[in-house]
User: Fold UDP-glucuronate 4-epimerase from Tetracentron sinense.
Amino acid sequence: MSQLKPISHLDNNPSTPGKFKMDKSPYIHRLRWHSSLAKLAFWFFIFLGLILFFFLHSFSSSPPSDLSRRSLRTSIWGGPAWEKRVRTSARVRSRNGLSVLVTGAAGFVGTHVSAALKRRGDGVLGLDNFNDYYDPSLKRARQALLDRTGVFVVEGDINDSVLLRKLFDVVAFTHVMHLAAQAGVRYAMQNPGSYVHSNIAGLVNVLEVCKSANPQPSIVWASSSSVYGLNSKVPFSERDRTDQPASLYAATKKAGEEMAHTYNHIYGLSITGLRFFTVYGPWGRPDMAYFFFTKDILKGKSISIFEGPDHGTVARDFTYIDDIVKGCLASLDTAEKSTGTGGKKKGPAQLRVFNLGNTSPVPVTKLVSILERLLKVKANRIMLKMPRNGDVQFTHANISLAQSELGYNPTTDLQTGLKKFVRWYLNYYSSNGKKSAG
Ligand SMILES: O=C(O)[C@H]1O[C@H](OP(=O)(O)OP(=O)(O)OC[C@H]2O[C@@H](n3ccc(=O)[nH]c3=O)[C@H](O)[C@@H]2O)[C@H](O)[C@@H](O)[C@@H]1O
Assistant:
Protein backbone atom coordinates (compact mmCIF):
# COMPACT_ATOMS: atom_id res chain seq x y z
CA MET A 1 0.00 0.00 0.00
CA SER A 2 1.30 3.32 -0.94
CA GLN A 3 0.40 4.79 2.48
CA LEU A 4 2.66 2.27 4.14
CA LYS A 5 5.62 3.23 2.06
CA PRO A 6 6.83 6.10 4.14
CA ILE A 7 6.50 3.99 7.28
CA SER A 8 8.40 1.05 5.87
CA HIS A 9 10.96 3.54 4.68
CA LEU A 10 11.15 4.86 8.22
CA ASP A 11 11.44 1.30 9.49
CA ASN A 12 14.51 0.75 7.40
CA ASN A 13 16.10 3.74 8.95
CA PRO A 14 18.29 2.56 11.83
CA SER A 15 17.24 5.35 14.18
CA THR A 16 17.38 3.08 17.25
CA PRO A 17 20.02 0.40 17.64
CA GLY A 18 17.59 -2.32 18.79
CA LYS A 19 15.11 -1.95 16.01
CA PHE A 20 16.51 -4.47 13.58
CA LYS A 21 16.67 -7.22 16.21
CA MET A 22 12.86 -7.54 16.30
CA ASP A 23 10.98 -10.58 15.05
CA LYS A 24 9.30 -10.00 11.73
CA SER A 25 6.09 -12.10 12.35
CA PRO A 26 2.84 -10.35 11.08
CA TYR A 27 1.63 -9.79 14.65
CA ILE A 28 4.92 -8.28 15.71
CA HIS A 29 4.93 -6.33 12.48
CA ARG A 30 1.52 -4.80 13.33
CA LEU A 31 2.65 -4.12 16.88
CA ARG A 32 5.74 -2.45 15.53
CA TRP A 33 3.63 -0.48 13.09
CA HIS A 34 1.43 0.74 15.96
CA SER A 35 4.32 1.52 18.22
CA SER A 36 5.99 3.48 15.42
CA LEU A 37 2.82 5.41 14.96
CA ALA A 38 2.61 6.08 18.69
CA LYS A 39 6.24 7.22 18.70
CA LEU A 40 5.64 9.45 15.72
CA ALA A 41 2.59 10.94 17.41
CA PHE A 42 4.56 11.37 20.63
CA TRP A 43 7.39 13.25 18.90
CA PHE A 44 4.94 15.21 16.86
CA PHE A 45 3.24 16.49 20.02
CA ILE A 46 6.58 17.23 21.68
CA PHE A 47 7.59 19.21 18.59
CA LEU A 48 4.25 21.04 18.55
CA GLY A 49 4.63 21.82 22.26
CA LEU A 50 8.09 23.27 21.68
CA ILE A 51 6.87 25.46 18.84
CA LEU A 52 3.99 26.67 21.00
CA PHE A 53 6.36 27.37 23.88
CA PHE A 54 8.71 29.48 21.77
CA PHE A 55 5.80 31.24 20.12
CA LEU A 56 4.21 32.22 23.45
CA HIS A 57 7.59 33.05 24.91
CA SER A 58 8.36 35.49 22.10
CA PHE A 59 5.04 37.24 22.83
CA SER A 60 5.50 37.46 26.57
CA SER A 61 9.09 38.78 26.60
CA SER A 62 8.88 42.45 27.35
CA PRO A 63 9.47 44.83 25.76
CA PRO A 64 9.16 43.22 22.32
CA SER A 65 11.67 44.35 19.73
CA ASP A 66 10.61 46.94 17.23
CA LEU A 67 10.97 44.33 14.52
CA SER A 68 8.57 41.91 16.18
CA ARG A 69 6.11 44.69 16.86
CA ARG A 70 6.15 45.55 13.20
CA SER A 71 5.75 42.04 11.89
CA LEU A 72 2.88 41.25 14.24
CA ARG A 73 0.94 44.25 13.14
CA THR A 74 -1.94 43.37 10.88
CA SER A 75 -3.67 45.83 8.64
CA ILE A 76 -7.28 45.78 7.64
CA TRP A 77 -7.86 46.78 4.06
CA GLY A 78 -9.90 45.88 1.03
CA GLY A 79 -13.52 46.00 0.00
CA PRO A 80 -15.45 48.40 -2.24
CA ALA A 81 -15.72 51.19 0.37
CA TRP A 82 -11.98 51.04 1.06
CA GLU A 83 -11.16 51.08 -2.67
CA LYS A 84 -13.41 54.08 -3.14
CA ARG A 85 -11.56 55.96 -0.37
CA VAL A 86 -8.24 55.05 -1.98
CA ARG A 87 -9.39 56.27 -5.39
CA THR A 88 -10.91 59.47 -4.06
CA SER A 89 -7.79 60.36 -2.10
CA ALA A 90 -5.52 59.69 -5.10
CA ARG A 91 -7.72 61.58 -7.59
CA VAL A 92 -5.90 64.43 -9.33
CA ARG A 93 -7.75 67.74 -9.09
CA SER A 94 -5.49 70.06 -11.04
CA ARG A 95 -4.36 70.16 -14.66
CA ASN A 96 -1.21 68.08 -15.13
CA GLY A 97 -1.38 67.10 -11.47
CA LEU A 98 0.46 64.07 -10.15
CA SER A 99 -0.96 61.00 -8.52
CA VAL A 100 1.39 60.21 -5.65
CA LEU A 101 1.68 57.31 -3.26
CA VAL A 102 3.38 58.70 -0.14
CA THR A 103 4.88 56.02 2.11
CA GLY A 104 5.49 57.06 5.71
CA ALA A 105 2.69 59.58 5.30
CA ALA A 106 2.02 59.80 9.04
CA GLY A 107 5.69 60.56 9.64
CA PHE A 108 7.11 64.06 10.06
CA VAL A 109 8.23 64.76 6.49
CA GLY A 110 5.50 62.52 5.03
CA THR A 111 2.70 64.52 6.62
CA HIS A 112 4.04 67.86 5.43
CA VAL A 113 4.72 66.61 1.89
CA SER A 114 1.31 64.91 1.61
CA ALA A 115 -0.52 68.04 2.77
CA ALA A 116 1.46 70.27 0.39
CA LEU A 117 0.76 68.01 -2.60
CA LYS A 118 -2.93 67.86 -1.76
CA ARG A 119 -3.13 71.63 -1.37
CA ARG A 120 -1.92 72.20 -4.92
CA GLY A 121 -4.36 69.68 -6.40
CA ASP A 122 -2.30 66.52 -6.74
CA GLY A 123 -3.81 63.16 -5.90
CA VAL A 124 -2.27 61.74 -2.73
CA LEU A 125 -2.61 58.40 -1.03
CA GLY A 126 -0.72 57.81 2.21
CA LEU A 127 0.64 54.56 3.58
CA ASP A 128 2.00 54.13 7.10
CA ASN A 129 2.43 51.24 9.53
CA PHE A 130 2.05 53.47 12.62
CA ASN A 131 4.81 51.62 14.46
CA ASP A 132 5.68 52.72 17.97
CA TYR A 133 9.32 53.77 17.49
CA TYR A 134 8.00 57.01 18.98
CA ASP A 135 4.63 57.97 20.41
CA PRO A 136 2.05 56.66 17.88
CA SER A 137 -0.52 59.18 19.14
CA LEU A 138 1.51 61.90 17.41
CA LYS A 139 1.29 59.88 14.19
CA ARG A 140 -2.46 59.50 14.70
CA ALA A 141 -2.77 63.26 15.19
CA ARG A 142 -0.89 63.82 11.92
CA GLN A 143 -3.21 61.29 10.26
CA ALA A 144 -6.23 63.23 11.52
CA LEU A 145 -4.71 66.40 10.11
CA LEU A 146 -4.26 64.74 6.72
CA ASP A 147 -7.74 63.31 6.86
CA ARG A 148 -9.09 66.84 7.18
CA THR A 149 -7.20 67.87 4.05
CA GLY A 150 -8.59 64.89 2.12
CA VAL A 151 -5.62 62.54 2.30
CA PHE A 152 -6.44 58.96 3.23
CA VAL A 153 -3.60 57.14 5.01
CA VAL A 154 -3.81 53.39 4.55
CA GLU A 155 -2.49 51.46 7.54
CA GLY A 156 0.03 48.93 6.28
CA ASP A 157 3.69 48.04 5.99
CA ILE A 158 5.93 48.66 2.97
CA ASN A 159 7.01 45.03 3.30
CA ASP A 160 3.47 43.91 2.52
CA SER A 161 3.77 43.33 -1.23
CA VAL A 162 0.18 42.10 -1.55
CA LEU A 163 -1.08 45.40 -0.19
CA LEU A 164 1.30 47.45 -2.33
CA ARG A 165 0.28 45.60 -5.49
CA LYS A 166 -3.36 46.09 -4.56
CA LEU A 167 -2.80 49.85 -4.25
CA PHE A 168 -1.28 49.88 -7.73
CA ASP A 169 -4.23 47.82 -9.02
CA VAL A 170 -6.63 50.43 -7.73
CA VAL A 171 -4.63 53.54 -8.72
CA ALA A 172 -2.11 54.05 -11.54
CA PHE A 173 0.24 56.19 -9.46
CA THR A 174 2.48 58.42 -11.54
CA HIS A 175 4.90 58.95 -8.62
CA VAL A 176 5.95 57.31 -5.38
CA MET A 177 7.31 59.52 -2.62
CA HIS A 178 8.99 56.91 -0.48
CA LEU A 179 9.57 58.31 3.01
CA ALA A 180 8.76 55.29 5.17
CA ALA A 181 11.95 54.30 6.98
CA GLN A 182 13.47 53.49 10.31
CA ALA A 183 15.02 56.84 11.19
CA GLY A 184 17.41 57.85 13.96
CA VAL A 185 21.14 57.45 14.06
CA ARG A 186 21.69 56.28 17.64
CA TYR A 187 18.74 53.84 17.88
CA ALA A 188 20.45 51.60 15.31
CA MET A 189 22.65 50.24 18.09
CA GLN A 190 19.58 49.15 20.07
CA ASN A 191 17.50 47.69 17.29
CA PRO A 192 19.56 46.99 14.18
CA GLY A 193 16.94 44.61 12.80
CA SER A 194 14.37 47.37 12.41
CA TYR A 195 16.75 49.21 10.04
CA VAL A 196 17.21 46.13 7.89
CA HIS A 197 13.46 45.51 7.93
CA SER A 198 12.42 48.98 6.79
CA ASN A 199 15.38 50.54 5.03
CA ILE A 200 16.65 47.46 3.21
CA ALA A 201 13.87 44.87 2.86
CA GLY A 202 11.13 47.52 2.76
CA LEU A 203 12.88 49.57 0.10
CA VAL A 204 13.50 46.49 -2.05
CA ASN A 205 9.83 45.61 -1.76
CA VAL A 206 8.78 49.09 -2.86
CA LEU A 207 11.20 48.94 -5.80
CA GLU A 208 10.00 45.46 -6.77
CA VAL A 209 6.37 46.54 -6.83
CA CYS A 210 7.20 49.75 -8.73
CA LYS A 211 9.27 47.90 -11.31
CA SER A 212 6.35 45.58 -12.15
CA ALA A 213 3.68 48.28 -12.05
CA ASN A 214 2.22 49.28 -15.39
CA PRO A 215 2.95 52.13 -15.97
CA GLN A 216 6.01 52.25 -13.74
CA PRO A 217 5.92 55.28 -11.43
CA SER A 218 8.83 57.68 -10.92
CA ILE A 219 10.30 57.35 -7.45
CA VAL A 220 11.61 60.02 -5.08
CA TRP A 221 12.88 58.71 -1.77
CA ALA A 222 14.55 59.81 1.46
CA SER A 223 18.23 59.11 1.76
CA SER A 224 20.20 60.94 4.45
CA SER A 225 23.08 63.33 5.07
CA SER A 226 24.45 60.58 7.29
CA VAL A 227 25.77 58.76 4.19
CA TYR A 228 28.71 61.20 4.26
CA GLY A 229 29.80 59.49 7.48
CA LEU A 230 33.42 60.18 8.26
CA ASN A 231 33.89 62.37 5.18
CA SER A 232 35.80 65.42 6.39
CA LYS A 233 35.71 67.54 3.23
CA VAL A 234 33.22 70.38 3.70
CA PRO A 235 30.70 71.36 2.54
CA PHE A 236 29.46 67.88 1.61
CA SER A 237 28.94 67.55 -2.12
CA GLU A 238 27.11 64.76 -3.93
CA ARG A 239 30.43 63.93 -5.57
CA ASP A 240 32.15 63.25 -2.23
CA ARG A 241 32.83 59.75 -1.00
CA THR A 242 30.07 58.03 0.93
CA ASP A 243 31.74 54.74 1.72
CA GLN A 244 32.50 55.36 5.40
CA PRO A 245 29.13 55.32 7.19
CA ALA A 246 29.42 55.91 10.95
CA SER A 247 26.17 54.16 11.87
CA LEU A 248 24.13 51.20 10.70
CA TYR A 249 21.40 53.71 9.89
CA ALA A 250 23.77 55.49 7.49
CA ALA A 251 24.90 52.16 6.06
CA THR A 252 21.28 51.19 5.25
CA LYS A 253 20.68 54.54 3.54
CA LYS A 254 23.87 54.14 1.55
CA ALA A 255 22.77 50.60 0.62
CA GLY A 256 19.47 52.12 -0.51
CA GLU A 257 21.31 54.45 -2.88
CA GLU A 258 23.16 51.48 -4.38
CA MET A 259 19.94 49.50 -4.74
CA ALA A 260 18.36 52.49 -6.44
CA HIS A 261 21.18 52.33 -8.96
CA THR A 262 20.49 48.65 -9.59
CA TYR A 263 16.75 49.08 -10.15
CA ASN A 264 17.38 52.05 -12.39
CA HIS A 265 19.97 50.09 -14.37
CA ILE A 266 18.03 46.86 -14.79
CA TYR A 267 14.39 47.96 -14.90
CA GLY A 268 14.49 51.55 -16.10
CA LEU A 269 12.98 53.03 -12.94
CA SER A 270 13.38 56.79 -12.64
CA ILE A 271 14.74 57.31 -9.12
CA THR A 272 15.73 60.41 -7.14
CA GLY A 273 17.37 60.10 -3.71
CA LEU A 274 17.25 63.08 -1.35
CA ARG A 275 19.90 63.47 1.32
CA PHE A 276 18.03 65.33 4.05
CA PHE A 277 20.11 67.32 6.55
CA THR A 278 18.66 67.18 10.13
CA VAL A 279 15.12 68.25 9.31
CA TYR A 280 13.20 70.02 12.08
CA GLY A 281 9.95 71.89 12.61
CA PRO A 282 6.32 71.65 13.75
CA TRP A 283 4.95 68.09 13.96
CA GLY A 284 8.56 66.90 14.21
CA ARG A 285 10.05 63.67 15.53
CA PRO A 286 10.29 63.33 19.33
CA ASP A 287 13.48 61.25 19.02
CA MET A 288 15.42 64.21 17.63
CA ALA A 289 17.58 66.40 19.86
CA TYR A 290 15.78 69.75 19.30
CA PHE A 291 12.50 68.05 20.23
CA PHE A 292 13.53 66.23 23.40
CA PHE A 293 15.75 69.14 24.49
CA THR A 294 12.59 71.29 24.41
CA LYS A 295 10.69 68.74 26.46
CA ASP A 296 13.49 68.30 29.01
CA ILE A 297 14.24 72.01 29.36
CA LEU A 298 10.57 72.65 30.11
CA LYS A 299 10.55 69.85 32.66
CA GLY A 300 13.69 71.16 34.32
CA LYS A 301 15.56 67.98 33.43
CA SER A 302 19.21 68.09 32.44
CA ILE A 303 20.20 67.72 28.80
CA SER A 304 23.38 66.11 27.49
CA ILE A 305 25.19 68.11 24.85
CA PHE A 306 27.82 66.23 22.94
CA GLU A 307 31.22 67.70 22.15
CA GLY A 308 34.02 66.48 19.94
CA PRO A 309 37.63 65.70 20.89
CA ASP A 310 39.35 68.58 22.78
CA HIS A 311 35.94 70.16 23.47
CA GLY A 312 35.42 70.44 19.71
CA THR A 313 32.13 71.86 18.45
CA VAL A 314 29.42 69.50 17.30
CA ALA A 315 27.29 71.16 14.64
CA ARG A 316 24.44 70.37 12.28
CA ASP A 317 23.13 71.89 9.08
CA PHE A 318 19.61 72.06 10.56
CA THR A 319 17.03 72.35 7.75
CA TYR A 320 13.52 73.64 8.21
CA ILE A 321 10.66 71.42 7.11
CA ASP A 322 9.07 73.92 4.69
CA ASP A 323 12.33 74.14 2.76
CA ILE A 324 12.53 70.35 2.63
CA VAL A 325 8.96 70.14 1.36
CA LYS A 326 9.82 72.53 -1.48
CA GLY A 327 12.78 70.32 -2.39
CA CYS A 328 10.57 67.22 -2.35
CA LEU A 329 7.90 68.77 -4.56
CA ALA A 330 10.50 70.09 -6.99
CA SER A 331 12.02 66.61 -7.17
CA LEU A 332 8.64 65.10 -8.02
CA ASP A 333 7.96 67.81 -10.61
CA THR A 334 11.28 67.37 -12.37
CA ALA A 335 11.31 63.58 -12.22
CA GLU A 336 11.31 62.06 -15.67
CA LYS A 337 9.17 59.07 -16.50
CA SER A 338 10.42 55.55 -15.83
CA THR A 339 11.19 53.74 -19.05
CA GLY A 340 10.32 50.12 -18.31
CA THR A 341 7.19 48.14 -18.99
CA GLY A 342 6.22 44.66 -17.90
CA GLY A 343 9.23 44.63 -15.61
CA LYS A 344 11.62 45.22 -18.55
CA LYS A 345 13.76 48.28 -19.22
CA LYS A 346 13.06 50.01 -22.53
CA GLY A 347 15.74 52.67 -22.35
CA PRO A 348 17.98 54.63 -19.98
CA ALA A 349 16.15 56.29 -17.09
CA GLN A 350 16.90 59.20 -14.81
CA LEU A 351 18.93 58.53 -11.63
CA ARG A 352 19.61 61.46 -9.30
CA VAL A 353 20.88 62.23 -5.81
CA PHE A 354 20.53 65.67 -4.17
CA ASN A 355 21.61 67.25 -0.91
CA LEU A 356 18.71 69.07 0.74
CA GLY A 357 20.34 71.08 3.51
CA ASN A 358 20.45 74.65 4.74
CA THR A 359 24.13 75.39 3.99
CA SER A 360 24.74 76.97 7.40
CA PRO A 361 25.80 74.58 10.17
CA VAL A 362 24.92 75.65 13.71
CA PRO A 363 26.62 74.32 16.86
CA VAL A 364 24.33 72.26 19.09
CA THR A 365 25.21 74.64 21.97
CA LYS A 366 23.73 77.49 19.90
CA LEU A 367 20.58 75.45 19.22
CA VAL A 368 20.18 75.10 22.99
CA SER A 369 20.68 78.85 23.54
CA ILE A 370 17.96 79.63 20.99
CA LEU A 371 15.59 77.18 22.69
CA GLU A 372 16.35 78.75 26.11
CA ARG A 373 15.42 82.16 24.78
CA LEU A 374 12.24 80.95 23.09
CA LEU A 375 11.12 78.87 26.07
CA LYS A 376 12.28 81.48 28.60
CA VAL A 377 13.84 78.70 30.66
CA LYS A 378 17.52 78.12 31.38
CA ALA A 379 18.69 74.65 30.35
CA ASN A 380 20.54 72.43 32.77
CA ARG A 381 23.42 71.58 30.42
CA ILE A 382 25.70 68.61 30.84
CA MET A 383 28.60 68.60 28.40
CA LEU A 384 29.50 65.07 27.35
CA LYS A 385 32.22 63.69 25.15
CA MET A 386 30.38 62.45 22.06
CA PRO A 387 29.75 58.75 22.69
CA ARG A 388 30.65 56.31 19.95
CA ASN A 389 27.06 55.84 18.95
CA GLY A 390 26.95 56.56 15.24
CA ASP A 391 26.96 60.36 15.51
CA VAL A 392 29.29 62.45 13.38
CA GLN A 393 30.77 65.73 14.56
CA PHE A 394 29.33 68.03 11.92
CA THR A 395 27.31 68.19 8.73
CA HIS A 396 27.29 70.90 6.09
CA ALA A 397 25.47 70.69 2.76
CA ASN A 398 26.65 71.96 -0.57
CA ILE A 399 23.31 72.51 -2.31
CA SER A 400 24.46 73.88 -5.66
CA LEU A 401 23.23 70.82 -7.55
CA ALA A 402 19.73 71.04 -6.00
CA GLN A 403 19.78 74.78 -6.68
CA SER A 404 20.49 74.38 -10.36
CA GLU A 405 18.38 71.28 -11.04
CA LEU A 406 15.45 71.81 -8.67
CA GLY A 407 15.49 75.54 -8.01
CA TYR A 408 15.92 74.59 -4.34
CA ASN A 409 16.60 77.61 -2.17
CA PRO A 410 16.21 77.26 1.60
CA THR A 411 15.04 80.46 3.27
CA THR A 412 14.48 79.64 6.94
CA ASP A 413 17.23 80.14 9.50
CA LEU A 414 17.36 78.12 12.72
CA GLN A 415 16.07 80.94 14.94
CA THR A 416 12.99 81.47 12.73
CA GLY A 417 12.31 77.76 12.30
CA LEU A 418 12.67 76.95 15.99
CA LYS A 419 10.29 79.77 16.84
CA LYS A 420 7.64 78.07 14.71
CA PHE A 421 8.46 74.72 16.23
CA VAL A 422 8.21 76.00 19.81
CA ARG A 423 4.89 77.68 19.08
CA TRP A 424 3.52 74.42 17.71
CA TYR A 425 5.01 72.39 20.56
CA LEU A 426 3.50 74.53 23.32
CA ASN A 427 0.15 74.57 21.60
CA TYR A 428 0.10 70.85 20.85
CA TYR A 429 1.19 69.62 24.27
CA SER A 430 -0.63 72.18 26.36
CA SER A 431 -4.03 71.64 24.78
CA ASN A 432 -6.16 70.13 27.58
CA GLY A 433 -3.02 68.84 29.29
CA LYS A 434 -3.77 65.28 28.26
CA LYS A 435 -1.00 64.84 25.76
CA SER A 436 2.57 64.58 26.91
CA ALA A 437 5.76 64.51 24.87
CA GLY A 438 6.52 61.00 26.15
O1 LIG B 1 20.62 64.51 8.63
C1 LIG B 1 20.29 63.35 8.71
O2 LIG B 1 20.42 62.61 7.78
C2 LIG B 1 19.77 62.78 9.99
O3 LIG B 1 19.38 63.84 10.85
C3 LIG B 1 19.00 63.45 12.14
O4 LIG B 1 20.13 62.93 12.81
P1 LIG B 1 21.00 63.94 13.65
O5 LIG B 1 21.59 65.00 12.81
O6 LIG B 1 21.96 63.12 14.45
O7 LIG B 1 19.91 64.66 14.57
P2 LIG B 1 19.64 64.60 16.13
O8 LIG B 1 19.54 63.23 16.61
O9 LIG B 1 18.50 65.49 16.41
O10 LIG B 1 20.97 65.23 16.74
C4 LIG B 1 21.29 66.60 16.48
C5 LIG B 1 22.58 66.96 17.15
O11 LIG B 1 22.41 66.91 18.56
C6 LIG B 1 23.46 66.13 19.13
N1 LIG B 1 22.92 65.48 20.34
C7 LIG B 1 21.99 64.53 20.25
C8 LIG B 1 21.47 63.93 21.37
C9 LIG B 1 21.91 64.33 22.62
O12 LIG B 1 21.48 63.83 23.68
N2 LIG B 1 22.84 65.33 22.69
C10 LIG B 1 23.35 65.90 21.58
O13 LIG B 1 24.20 66.80 21.70
C11 LIG B 1 23.89 65.18 18.05
O14 LIG B 1 25.22 64.76 18.24
C12 LIG B 1 23.72 66.03 16.80
O15 LIG B 1 24.87 66.78 16.61
C13 LIG B 1 17.89 62.43 12.09
O16 LIG B 1 17.61 61.91 13.37
C14 LIG B 1 18.19 61.30 11.13
O17 LIG B 1 17.05 60.47 11.01
C15 LIG B 1 18.55 61.93 9.80
O18 LIG B 1 18.77 61.01 8.83
In short: The first helix runs from residue 4 to 11. Confidence is low (pLDDT under 50) at residues 1-33, 54-72.
